Amino acid sequence: MRRVAPHLLLPTRTATGLESLAEYRARGGYDGLIAARGQDPARLRAEVAASGLRGRGGAAFPTARKWDLAAAASADRKFVVANGGEHEPGSDKDRLLVQRHPHAVLEGLSLAGLATGATHGYVYLIEDMLPQRSSIEAALSEAADAGLLPFPIEVGTGPTTYVAGEETAALEALEGRPAKPRKKPPFPGEAGLFGKPTTVNNVETLAHVAWIARHGAAAFADIGTEQSKGTLLFTLGREVARPGVHELPFGSTFRDLIEGCGGGLVGGRRLRAILPAMSTGLLDARHLDVPIAYETLRPLGSSPGCGGVRLVLDDTDVVAMVLGIAEFFMQEQCGQCPPCRMETNQFVHILKAVQAHKGPGYDDKLKKLAEFSRKKGNCSLIEMAAAPVLSALDVFAAEFAAAAGPGALPGATH
């Protein structure tokens, strides 16, 4: 495990605005792409496989495996998409990358295209990302004028909704249809944009690809833990002295993040729990020193997710917080899958009853509802909506029982 925090994606710079092409080239930008243009695409895929890079959009799927699917498909046209459709409350890392370091995204997108045989690329953003669109369009112009792009790349947008960031919903939006997830299979690597093989990667994933192409798989794999390689971008809120986006290697702890990067909690408040991302399970404060990695958080019922960290403090109304999360998912589900509509609406109904002191039996109701709905939608929103709610029943059992009213003591409904 490596404790020194390398800056792979967020270089130390005196300027905080848009990184120009000249600035990016000065730190080795596009060197990896230039070298890769004369290589066998299989070599690039093998390098990314050896690095251990996983997707940074939250699902953590091995990047090279996704690339292999599209590379193996036979088609006259193939596409590659940089997914920057970030709309999870508490996460700003994709917005920051696209706005300040767009050339890293473009280089990674170009490399993904070379590795999979793509003939056209898209940078996908949501409609309210106006500063990010301005930055990426300026970077595209610079890169095209310099002859750096191996194929045409354009910017496409989708609606300002959470589900529009799901990869197949993004493809629907790029095709001019409502941004609703597709049923899978087929997967995008087999039949994606306009029915052609398509690789969709999160913008943070692609920025890592650019770094790997420049520095090599071994250098990347040397950072992090056995199963979680490289660094991750985290977003901290105003609960800490230094809010914003921070970069740490896997294997760091939440204490490293909150105290080392964030400067500690403000106002003398006490930490009670951590939500690593809104779509993951809660961890209580005793996990402050657990290494952040897929293999360490998964047994605890959680995940690093997209790194949008929410801190639960001693003055947090936890029932109201969990209800707010449930309401977000209810409002943001796209409406096409009946199990998802039912689950998200019923979660809110049950939690409102708890909040109104009319909730005996809430525990079993929520768990049975989540189990019934599991894996029944076109995307993973069903699981995302359930994770924070179900974990809160354990981490905050006493608070939920007290709110629910007489007869709802912890464990009484199990």
Rounded mean pLDDT score: 94
Structural class given helices, strands, pairing? alpha/beta
Largest sheet strand order: 3-2-1-4
Q: CATH top level of the largest domain?
A: Alpha Beta
Our count of helices gives 17
Structure summary, number of beta strands: 9
CATH topology (fold) name of the largest domain:
Rossmann fold
CATH architecture of the largest domain: 3-Layer(aba) Sandwich
Poorly predicted runs: 409-414
Name the CATH homologous superfamily of the largest domain: NADH-ubiquinone oxidoreductase 51kDa subunit
Rg (C-alpha, Å): 22 Å
Strand content: 5-15%
Number of spatially distinct domains: 3
Shape: globular
Reading the helices and strands in chain order gives HHHHEHHEHEHEHHEEHEEHEHHHHH
Helix percent reads 40-55%
Q: How far is it from the N-terminal to the C-terminal residue, by CA?
A: 40 Å
